[in-house]
Amino acid sequence: MEQLPPGKLRNRCDPETLPFRTTAEITGDCDLIGQDRALDAIRLSSRLPHRDFNLFVLGPSGTGRHSAVDRLLKEQAAKRPVPSDWVYVNNFGAEHKPIALRLPAGTATALRSEMQDLVDDLASDIPALFESDEYQSQRRAIEQELGEAQETAMADFADRAKAEQVALLRTPMGFMLAALHDGQIVKPEDFQKLDPKEQAEIEEKIDRLQEDLAEVLRQAPKLEKEHRKRVEDLNAKMAERAVTARVAEVKAELLAIEPVAKYLEAVRKDIIAHAELFLIATSQANDGPFPEAIRRFHHRPEFDRYIVNVMVSQSSDADAGAPVETEHLPTLDKLVGRIEHVSQMGSLVTNFTMIKPGALHRANGGYLMLDARNVLSEPYAWDALKRCLRNQSIGITSLAERLSLVSTTSLEPDPIPLDLRVVLVGDRMLHALLVMLDPDFNELFKIQADFEEAVDRSPESMSLFARLIGSYVTREGLRPLTAGAVARLLDEATRVAEDAAKLSLRLRAVVDLLREAEHYAVGRDSAEVEAEDIDRAISEKERRASRIKDRVQEAITRKTILIDTEGEKPGQINGLSVVGLGDYRFGRPSRITARVRMGAGKLIDIEREVELGGPLHSKGVMILSGYLASRYALDVPFSLHASLVFEQSYGGVDGDSASSAELYALLSALSGLPIKQGLAVTGSVNQSGEVQAIGGVNEKIEGFFETCAARGLTGDQGVLIPQSNIEHLMLRDPVVKAVEAGKFRIIAVSTIDEGIDILTGTPVGERRKDGTFADGTVNALVEAKLREYAETRRAFVRGPQSEQNGPKP
Amino acid sequence: MTGKTAQTWRILIGAGSFLDARDALVLLRQMDGPHASEIGGVLVEETVFAEAVDLPGQRVVTAAGAMTVVPSASQLQRQFESDARAFREMLSDIAGNRKWSFERRQGELLSHLRDAARGWDMLLVGHRRTHRLPGRVILVAPVAGVSDKAAGFARDLAQALDTSVHRFTLSATAAPEDAGNEHFVTQEALRERLDRMPVAALVLDMPVDGQSADADLHALIAAARCPVFVLEGAGRDAQA
Question: What number of other Cβ atoms are within 10 A of residue A652's Cβ?
């Protein structure tokens, strides 16, 4: 047991120990301290060339994870080569399977422009060629030749027919042949009058000429087919001349790229085969306000097939380094890209120009930073990311297609090879869940960078922390902080760390405070931010967040919530709890009462019975039962029936930090010794009666202090805390000052015996060699009561048997 | 660039069957309508068919070169009915909001057409084409020179068909020739040339009257094997 002196209640940084008067004197940049382990991990991941060494950065928010990762990745990216450009081009042989082309950095946009120029030029060149006299005369020569061939055949037939006195008749169903006599068609009755030989001759020649005519007419489709083919060949020959000449004019540096040369050859063949597109485009181009010379034909939809769809274009500067991308909204589409559709005649259609890149494309060859929670909360994004990493390629599949929600035309673009380091930033819980539940996670994210929440408070770390603050002030253009203000910030960082020997590395909270303090300094027209500005920022922040705390304290002061801070009562004690509202926490006292009677060894936790107690609280209460049963009256059955309750608690209780208070209340109830109500208790207990450390010790002490202060400090009031929590104390000034003035006490205990001694003012008593406790001690009274319950119970059990057997005569 | 002429015509289309009329109507449609202020149609059911079908060993040779049995008289009549409906519908479709008329006649084709063409500006005699190969527009004109309206019409027609105009002149005396102009001293020579060249349409800008008018016109149509526009002396009224 130790009543703590004021010096142990908080750790103060002496501004005199800081090697500067204001932060303006601090030189050098510093944006992170105490995170060497995490930073080494980030560096390792960024430098390892092997696959799957992706990184998971874990730790609490506000520790500078994002900025540190971003800075280190950019440093490493600057040393890496600029990755390739990627484009999608039309697959002229299978348009639903667009082709991905890897191009040297900086050439994708050049190729796109080149193709636009090529289309624009050919849209002028090809029609001009087809309008030329050369083409027209060649085409007409073909038409003439084949037309004359057919006409000549018909003419020859007509001549033969005429020579054989046969007329060609055009009937509604087709041609008919009829014999002539003196230029007139031989009528059936005249035919019958002819001798059989003449009839036979006529029939024979009609029959023969019909066959001839049929043969002549059957030639027509063949000649038409040949005509089409020869005109197509001529068109192709003419187009080829223009296209080949124009393709040859493509910049030599582009032609030297093998995939580009291959693509241009495919383009050349396709344009030759589809030369009519250029003729149609030109024939329709006369409408519109712009002269043809400045018309951009490549914008026309029929030339989409020659578009170069740039997926990613890097800088042509060889020193530009690899990309570092951050995707703040990592939906499936934004991650792996998407294939858009447009509505045409009520159908959804698409083509390779509607393939849009995602973050993986942009970051390919470099680094991609993602928020783990965001990735996991977007449908199918995590799955797609893993698949791409596993396959080392980016395959685009839309969600609608995957879920078979729509049936429409879609594409199967070439997957683009992926060489990427993914950095996920998340909290520890998420990391633990992924490790536990996703077997792929450990395979794909082999490195973790675990950010510390706090660093040891030492002169070196405080100096570094001060430098970090100075760097931030300089970087943000804030007014400099005096050494006093920095010292105050350091103390606040220690309080945030909930450990007097640590400095919190949740830098966001510190810089938020700093910025608010700077605002107050500006308000009072001070050139420097001073300690009083920091104090004001702290108190204003607390004031803004403390409405509920004030209402609770008001309710206690007005005795709506019953808390005694004076006098003594058996079986009643002030426990302490912490209420958390976002990043603001405050402590409040709660009355805990215990009631006992003879029973069958049952300890009732009323909170648990009504399902207001959490599992940790229930565990703590069960430990009490174990403690009592194993400590007292070991030779008789444990015959206690006790109940414990947090009075006026309506919102649930969890944690075992009140278990020592509950045990004190039980011991008081059993011993009949009253507990001093000016004291409040926090600490958990084990079955051996040792008091163990709890969280939120500062807020709990301050919560009870405020209750007592509101009613007037008596000097007898105070808080019992676990011995092991002493080093976590970082109490606010009012508490420390009250302790200095002897108006409030902070007492550290390590065992229940120490605590009950203080709370009852009665010696606890050690078990003597004869197995008993000294009379009048707490333990003696407790044991006596438990033995009494056991005896009473035994007598109760024997009573009816004695009556049945009757007294012996 | 050559623009279309502003001249409009009252055109009568005549044919012995829908097969013959259809190619002529297609030409009109390709010319985009404005050339005709009014169109009329005459389907002449030639009686000679009825006589020919009863001859033994007769077969019909279709345009595709297939041979089928000859129709009976009743089948032929039904075919005429069907042709008349198709002719009328296509004519009305092409006419749109313009004035149009249709009539059926029986007898010899050209005789009836020339008779029906009285009062019309132009007679278009339908003739089925035996193939779909492109051909030129042939303008048959007097040596003295082609009329402006005939030249304009032939040019518009050629433009609609994406081809060129080739001019034939006919007179007993020699006349100069050039790439677009051929001269013939006899009808037979002209027909023989016409017989062996692919022609998209024939435009006659010379009188077809006199005693042998029908025979000459018939021979020209038979040689051209394409729709024929008769601009001068189409009707009996034009006869001297």
Answer: 13
